[in-house]
Design a protein that fits this description.
With 493 residues, the chain is α/β, with parallel strands linked by helices. It has three domains: 1-100, Maf protein (Alpha-Beta Complex); 103-151; 160-434, tm_1862 like domain (pyruvate-formate lyase- activating enzyme, Alpha-Beta Horseshoe), CATH 3.80.30. Helix content is 41%, strand content 22%. The strands form four sheets. It has a nine-stranded mixed sheet, sandwiched between helices. It has a five-stranded mixed sheet with strand order 2-1-3-4-5, covered by helices on one side. Strands 7-8 form a two-stranded parallel ribbon. β12, α10 and β13 (348-353) form a beta-alpha-beta unit. α5 (191-212) runs parallel beside α6 (233-247) and α10 runs parallel beside α12. The longest helix has 24 residues, at 75-98. It is globular and about 70 Å long. The model is unreliable at 487-493 (pLDDT under 50). The structure holds iron/sulfur cluster. Iron/sulfur cluster binds next to loops. GO terms for molecular function: 4 iron, 4 sulfur cluster binding; coproporphyrinogen dehydrogenase activity. Residues 159-394 form the Radical SAM core domain. It comes from Gehongia tenuis. InterPro entries: Coproporphyrinogen-III_oxidase (IPR034505), Elp3/MiaA/NifB-like_rSAM (IPR006638), HemZ (IPR023995), rSAM (IPR007197), rSAM_horseshoe (IPR023404), rSAM_sf (IPR058240).
């Protein structure tokens, strides 16, 4: 579909809304023939007037008009409200034209929980529910989910301090690459390169923590990837020992053990011995046919074997990830996976909806894969709620990604007392995140402005090795001690 916009800077926002209703390619154009959406905004003294029209082969099929008062305040806030108003106008137009309703209404952002919390701060939880229903057209089921998450998260978010950081340590190696993966995850890497990576990572951690550590307080540490356990045991141990040396006391220490083809009693014994509290063993699916399709080379029963070994090693805080909507899967297949998870009874369960990400093999060869229709994936998510209920879990964090099937969501479930603080903090962005490793993104939270400033690391391994000092400097500057940690200015203002 062609988008004719008198504010071309709105292209991404409007394109996202159009794709929620119709996953067609969208282009910015001046050509008004064919299938086009025309969006115009006129700025008057105190208001924006918008008109959006949908044209098919020279015929006007639907239109929408809207006006919004221009709010006072800083340009950044005005810009945010302007973009939101434009999205709402186009959402109403597309809903009218297609007759479709969407579970998340007009919300396109990745963190609906954050919006709920902001609104609840201004209007109370009931007010937040009303605004989500009336302004954003969010379904009662999704509002109910947000309300539950809001109550579960509140004690954790109320306890944050401006000095708090969560620490992320990234290990970008995997045994094989899954078809849906878009992470920095290198498969088939030789051991000497892995050792070099760990050397560099430890240097980066030390180089950043040495000048900053005194003024920060660690809330949680998360070793993720990739698959950290794809490292030789001795190399992963070096990382965990360095984490203790720098960041102790660590109130929460997670290692993403990830795939069972990297797990055995020796690995679990080392993780336990190094004081890891929480591990993830991620089946994604327990269906052997799907495992083959998605590029995971281990067989049936491997997840149960790894889970059993982890329990025997003494782990009592285990997360499992599943993905709804994997190629070739039906709700019945998904239910079988959930039934086996119910038997294992982990403390946490993370339910993802398949996202077809740009850098993935799945996206490149999309036509070769049979994907379930949206209604089937919605059914899968309902089944996952039933499983979480059966395991006495509550939803405690939620996020959305671009290109998710049906614009649905990922939900973290947990038994009370087992919530992962790292996950809550990274989703809600009320604390800073200090991130190490290739492709890791450090974020500093500025409380006064309620905003985040980023310092990304390079993703390519060669660049990471040759530009380590620059990665260290970026983080030190971002957390520059001369900048008031309550906010107001950043190093590149
Ligand atoms: S295990 Fe995770 S990080 Fe590794 S290839 Fe699969 S999806 Fe990517």
């Amino acid at each position: 579909m062609g988008l004719v916009l008198n504010h071309p800077e709105l292209f991404n926002d409007i394109g996202d809304v159009v794709r929620m209703f119709d996953p067609c390619p969208v282009t910015l154009t001046q050509d008004r023939t064919g299938r086009v959406l025309i969006h115009e905004v006129k700025k008057e003294e105190d208001r924006w007037r918008q008109r959006a029209e949908l044209w098919e082969e020279g015929k006007l099929t639907a239109y929408e008009e809207r006006e919004d008062p221009i709010p006072g305040g800083r340009p950044l806030i005005q810009k945010r409200i302007f973009r939101r108003a434009a999205k709402l106008c186009v959402y109403d137009l597309m809903r009218k034209a297609t007759g479709k309703t969407l579970p998340w209404g007009s919300l396109t952002g990745v963190r609906p929980g954050k919006l709920f919390r902001d609104l609840a701060g201004q209007e109370g939880p009931e007010g937040a529910e009303r605004i989500l229903r009336e302004t954003y057209d969010v379904s009662p089921a999704k509002i109910g989910l947000l309300r539950r998450i809001y109550s579960e998260q509140k004690p954790f978010l109320d306890s944050t301090d401006v000095r708090d950081v969560d620490v992320y340590i990234g290990v970008p190696f995997c045994r094989t690459r899954c078809v849906y993966c878009s992470f920095a995850a290198y498969a088939g890497v030789k051991e000497d390169l892995k050792t070099r990576y760990v050397d560099t990572l430890l240097r980066e951690m030390e180089g950043v923590w040495q000048p900053l550590g005194d003024r920060l307080r660690v809330r949680s540490v998360y070793v993720g990837g990739g698959t950290p356990t794809a490292l030789p045991v001795r190399e992963l141990r070096r990382i965990l020992q360095k984490a203790h040396a720098l960041f102790d006391p660590m109130p929460e220490f997670t290692v993403e053990a990830g795939r069972p083809d990297t797990l055995n009693p020796e690995v679990f014994a080392m993780l336990k011995g190094e004081g890891v509290d929480r591990i993830c063993i991620n089946p994604q699916t327990m269906n052997p046919k799907t495992l083959q399709i998605i590029g995971r080379e281990y067989g049936e029963g491997e997840i149960e074997r790894a889970f059993d070994e982890a329990r025997k090693a003494g782990f009592s805080w285990i997360n499992m990830d599943v993905i709804a909507g994997l190629p070739g899967e039906t709700a019945e297949d998904f239910e079988k996976t959930l039934a086996r998870i119910r038997q294992l009874a982990p403390e946490n369960l993370t339910v993802h909806t398949l996202a077809i990400k740009r850098a993935s093999e799945l996206k490149e060869r999309l036509r070769e894969y049979a994907l379930a229709p949206v209604t089937e994936v919605e059914r899968m998510l309902e089944l996952s709620c039933e499983t979480a209920d059966a395991l006495s879990m509550e939803p405690y964090y939620l996020y959305r990604q671009k290109y998710m099937t049906g614009n649905l969501e990922n939900v973290g479930w947990g038994k009370k007392g087992s919530y992962c603080v790292y996950n809550i903090d990274t989703m809600e962005e009320l604390t800073s995140n200090l991130a190490f490793g290739a492709g890791a993104i450090t974020k500093r939270y500025f409380k006064k402005d309620n905003r985040i400033e980023r310092a990304p690391n390079v993703r390519n391994l060669g660049d990471y090795f040759s530009r380590t000092d620059e990665m260290i400097d970026r983080k030190i500057k971002l957390f520059d001690p001369s900048v008031d940690i309550e906010g107001g200015r950043t190093y590149n203002d």
